[in-house]
Amino acid sequence: MVSDMPNAASSVFRALADPTRRAIFERLSRDGEQTVHVLTRHSGVSQPMVSKHLSALKRARLVGHRRRGRETHYRARPQALAPLVDWINHYSAFWQNKLDQLEDLLERMEP
Amino acid sequence: MTEPATRSVIIEKEYAHPPEKVWRALTERSLIEQWLMKNDFQPLVGHEFRLRSEPVPNWDGVIECRVLAAEPCKTLSYTWGTLGTGTVVTFTLTPTAAGTHLRMEHSGFREDQEKNYKGAKYGWQSFLGKLEGVVAGLE
Questions:
Q1: What pTM was estimated for this model as a whole?
Q2: What domains are defined for chain B?
Q3: What share of chain B is helix, strand, coil (3-state, %, to 5)?
Q4: Which residues in chain B are closer than 8 Å to A10, comparing Cβ atoms?
């Protein structure tokens, strides 16, 4: 059911609603671990903006990080997308339920 | 960046009632409320309306919609906007000997995970595979 949508799904959706964040997430998914510098080179926005987007992705647990020397390396966490799959599943159950209710309504309606 | 592939939820159902009656249930406010949600719907292309369900933590229960198509007794389509995501709901009615065949397609669910994790080691393929029964893919 939609009303049961878990908080995790909405934070993942919010994080991925922004095209720059989506691009960063896709790059990390495709190319593996990256530093902020490398991500900035490809993103078309400033390094502070990339850092801000990375923070949002980290809050949604879509991105993890580790320090190596003076640089922080970021990586995608694909398992954080699980709520999205669940969300689609929720909608399937949601519509099954609603279309059954539609049938009940049709029975009650005047011909 | 190419547009990510999306997926749909498709449900088909037979009703023992004529399309005219099913159409009324899909398009009259008081009837919509009885099976779907509170609303300020009008069957006019371009009309913006809201579906309202009970608010829950992190979600106000409001779905922002806009009518894309409304062909009486045949097709009704509207956008379904919630939590920064845009999807589309389309109802298609076909008369049958027994009544009406209704096809509901809710499309536009982003499938970044499938594109990004094809062949990844997280068991996504098998997980997504289990959804195939209820969720049909489209580009």
A1: 0.57
A2: 6-136 (3.30.530.20)
A3: 20, 45, 35
A4: 58-59, 83
